[in-house]
Design a protein that fits this description.
The structure is a single chain. By secondary structure, the chain is α+β, with helices and mostly antiparallel strands. The chain has 3 helices and 6 strands; from the N terminus they run αβαβββαββ. A hairpin with a 6-residue loop joins β3 and β4. The chain is elongated.
């Protein structure tokens, strides 16, 4: 009887510890290219824009067809990250080839 009681008690304690242990969050860099940035540009900057780059002057959106691209407006890199991911966004960084790097918590 005492052995059964101790076994049940140990199972109950193990279950409570499993519930009480917090999940480990990780900080991750998620990279978005020009077409993904373009989704943000199209939705939030200009409905005619389809591509975007995180240039030295900020996040810039462009339109254009078979010809040259035309500047369509600017966007906010942090808000673009919030638009493109459901993760908690810590910051927006400029990546290689004018990509948008979103530092997120997962």
């Amino acid at each position: 009887m005492l052995r059964r009681g101790l076994a049940l008690l140990s199972l109950a304690v193990a279950g409570l510890l499993a519930l009480a242990a917090p999940a480990q969050a990780a900080v991750v860099d998620v990279t978005f290219g020009p077409l993904s940035i373009g989704d943000y540009c199209h939705a939030k900057v200009s409905s005619s824009s389809w591509i975007g780059f995180y240039e030295s002057g900020g996040l810039r959106c462009y339109t254009g067809g078979p010809g040259p691209m035309t500047y369509a407006g600017s966007g906010d890199p942090y808000l673009a990250c919030k638009f493109l991911t459901t993760d908690v966004v810590m910051s927006a960084l400029r990546g290689t080839s004018d990509a948008l790097v979103c530092r997120v918590v997962r």
